Amino acid sequence: MPDQPKPFTVLVTGGAGYIGSHAVLALLDAGWRVVVLDNLVTGFRWAVPAEVAFVQGDIADMDLVGRTLAEHEIGAILHFAGSIVVPESVTDPLKYYRNNTAASRALIEAAVTAGVRHFIFSSTAATYGIPDEVPIREDMPTRPINPYGMSKLMTELMLGDVAAAHPLNYCALRYFNVAGADPQGRSGQSTAGATHLIKIAVEAAIGKRGHVGVFGTDYATPDGTGVRDYIHVSDLADAHVHALDHLVAHPRESLVMNCGYSRGFSVLEVLDTVDRVTNLTIERRIEPRRAGDPDRLVADNSRILATLPWRPRHAELEGIVRDALAWERKLAERSA
Ligand code: UDP
């Protein structure tokens, strides 16, 4: 519930996309006024609630961004817009350096010019590359192994320099594996051609695909399949709202924080959970390893727990799967 009137309006770039649309819901639930900027290349207009002002366009369009920031008296930007497909970043790196790094640079410049004070950035565990140990702490080396991770790390580095030079503070949130959907069914992962495990598994569960490939069974993990730290998208969205409150309360402080639960599940554990939730048995097909997949990626989340009042509310894997499944069924009904 909103406690007191908010001091300014928040711009959410990529607010019509998967994570951005959940962040918009979390901001509205907390009483913020929100404007969404999205070019709708991968986002959906329907994912933006009717009460939110919507601007269709590109974050690299500095005129448009400048006008939007001034018109709506924006005090903070939550920046989700960008390209997110890791294999594509390997084959088309310049797209990632354009859409993620260069476009972010333009957005940050527009923010500085307009006097925006706070900036929250969607970063990623891909900034770590292959970690020496898990759980991964924020002070461990960042050695991305693909242009996607590098494009995000470069933006983090720009923000560090900009925050030192201008009256703007920032928070880079390094997401681990984001999954699930709004428990109230207001949004979810809707992009066609999904590659993420939980999305693929629930698509298989509702008959949208025949089987799930298990990419490698010889990893150095208990059952040989890759282990990841799956975080519910609504918990992740809440982390942004808390991060915003923190930036406002501590205008000289900037933060880099992992977003995960400090626990991992293997591919087979995820598929077993989907079976349990659906009472079905998804067909698993053992397939070769996917290039560049580390054995285990698990966040050490002690920094975010120590810094923000954020606490996971949807950490159970069954609940994540249930919400993902409910959304998948809704999508199927919609397209039927
Ligand atoms: N994975 C899999 N089959 C799939 C998709 C993913 O076995 O169809 C595995 C993948 O190798 C990794 C884990 O599931 O170990 C999570 O992959 P995802 O693509 O969801 O996220 P990533 O960790 O690559 O960002």
How would you describe this protein?
By secondary structure, the protein is α/β, with parallel strands linked by helices. The chain has a domain at about 10-180 and about 230-260: NAD(P)-binding Rossmann-like Domain (Rossmann fold), CATH 3.40.50.720. It contains 10 helices and 14 strands. The chain has helices at about 20-30, 60-70, 85-90, 95-115, 145-165, 195-205, 235-250, 265-280, 300-305, 315-335; strands at about 10-15, 35-40, 55, 75-80, 120-125, 170-175, 175-180, 210-215, 225-230, 230, 255-260, 265, 285, 295. The strands form 4 sheets. A 7-stranded parallel beta sheet has the order 3-2-1-4-5-6-11, sandwiched between helices. A 3-stranded mixed beta sheet has the order 12-9-14. The chain has a two-stranded parallel sheet with strand order 7-10. Helix 2 (about 60-70) packs parallel to helix 4. The structure holds uridine-5'-diphosphate.
* CATH homologous superfamily designation of the domain at 9-179 and 230-259: NAD(P)-binding Rossmann-like Domain
Largest sheet: 7 strands, parallel
Radius of gyration over alpha carbons? 19 Å
Ions, cofactors and other ligands present here are: uridine-5'-diphosphate
In CATH, the architecture of the domain at 9-179 and 230-259 is 3-Layer(aba) Sandwich
- Indicate the low-confidence ranges by residue numbers: none
- Specify the CATH class of the domain at 9-179 and 230-259: Alpha Beta
Q: What proportion of the residues is helical, as a percent range? A: 25-40%
**Overall average pLDDT:** 97
Name a few traits of the molecule.
single chain; 336 residues; alpha/beta; Rossmann fold; seven-stranded parallel β-sheet; three-stranded mixed β-sheet; 10 helices; 14 strands; binds uridine-5'-diphosphate
